[in-house]
Amino acid sequence: MKIIFHQTHHTIADFDNIFKYLQEQIKKSEDALHVFPELFLTGYPLQDLCIQKPFFEKYEALLKKVEKLSSKISSDSTYLFGGLSYEYNKNKIPQSIKNVVFKLSNKGLEKVYTKQLLPNYDIFDEQKYFTPGNESCVLKINDKNIGVLICEDMWSSSFHKKDPVQLLAEHTNKQQLDFIVNMSASPYSLGKNTKRLQRAQEISSLFQCPFLYINKVGAEDEILFDGKSFICDGEKIHKQAKSFEQETLNFNLDDFQYSFKINETKNESNTWEDLFQSRIQKQKDKTHSLIPWSDDDCAEVIKALSLGFQDYAKKCGFSNFTIALSGGMDSALVLSIMRLALKEGQYLEAIYMPSIHSSPLSYDLSISLCENLGIPLKSLPIKFLHSTTKNLFGQSFSQPFDGLTDENIQSRLRGTLLYTRSNQINSMVVNTSNKSELAVGYSTQYGDSVGAISLLGDIFKSEVYRLAEYINQKHNGLIPKEIITRPPTAELRPDQRDTDSLPEYKVLDAILDGILSYRYTQKDLIKLGFEEAEVQKVFDLYKRTEYKRYQFCPILKISSKSFGFGYRVPISKSSTFYNK
Prior knowledge:
- This protein is an alpha/beta fold and about 575 residues long.
- It has helices spanning about 15-25, 55-70, 125-130, 165-170, 190-205, 270-275, 295-315, 330-340, 360-375, 385-395, 405-425, 435-440, 460-475, 480-485, 505-515, 520-530, 530-545, 545-550, and strands at about 1-5, 35, 80-90, 95-105, 110-115, 140, 145-150, 180-185, 210-215, 215-220, 225, 230, 235-240, 245-250, 280, 290, 320-325, 345-350, 375-380, 425-430, 455.
- The protein is globular, with a radius of gyration of 26 Å.
């Protein structure tokens, strides 16, 4: 039996191009079972789009067009793809929406399966919109018995009251399946693919048949989809599609020789449990740090970020990009990643905006980096704007203009200049803040926190350095070494260092990971060996800067718990429960 995986990449609700793609595949007349991702007909995640009348009216029109394609399909071809099934009341208001699998053949369009497990944690909110199914599905196609699952259905977890995999086993009553297909729109996080493969191997061994996994590709605002569709036989992964790229994968089940071993161990976790997993590790000197990224991890993260910013820019209509370059690590890394991912016809520039506190070294390093990258560097000094603003407020309010006020106005003036330039050339400003800064509020609201999208907002500062080292290793020292080795500083006052306000990043990041995994209290972290004063300081900074995080730009999500779309915490709340 020939099977074709369509690891697709479409914009949400782009019904014309989604239909065009399906129509083109049918015109090719490749006799096979064609399998597409979850919600292929609409895109994912939909949020409130799926309850907006213009959306579901256009979607229903698409279904009618798709159904008409059945007359052009040969008797030896079948198409399985994800979509929505609506039920309306007499006023044409949706009463029920189901996440379903459609089967398209020369006999017409048929709804064959409804997703049973609707995730409702972190970035997921499917229970808000969808009605779950309650029946297993075995399709008979070309004399093959095919079990069908949608994404979350493959995961057994304490979060869910039922296990569709076990229900499928009971439904078949030990009838031999020829294979199981899982159609997914599974968001990316670093390390997630390993868990997918392990779970697929468990299911394949349980049923003694191949497991086919088809996933979508693309970035939808903050959420990334990595693809990596595959087929496994319980132990062996026979084929796997590329990561972060659209691809068509062809194979014939008869070409594979399967040998199974029963896997007695069962993976008892899914993404819900992943939220509570910490990456803190104890080192030989009894200090703690994050588990470091491997070279493969770094390569994967850079590829994910590149897809994320390119998709966001394309879907928002930008081909020009503006970055504030400071001579520091974060902006250097963002600029380097964007330059490596830049496409023909796109324009990238860096803006250096020195103040009276900026060192000559910062300018020299910025010039060196831009020369290495081959991109233009523009200089817009802010010292005169700063002085004018300071004098104006002194005259108007008769109050001293110093301390934090003086530091923050420098950052906000830079934000103003960035967006003035953005308006001038219709460019997208890309934020350069990292996850460590976001967590403790070490940034200026409407200053260095500005931007249309954040590449580093889900990457701790220590991981920023690791990515920089990896890029230099792979690209012959692209980032000047002194940018990496110099002490981090915001240069907003004389001789400023980040360590004046924060613990060393190695320590800070480990404490923050403990907090953001929702796993550790202050007492827990102190018991692990962190200094009590540092733990207290980090908790205090974290809990009082929720308002800043709430107003931050979208963050490309690469971990199981990121700030942004999946992080939902009240701004106004009592924080006493954080206390030791």
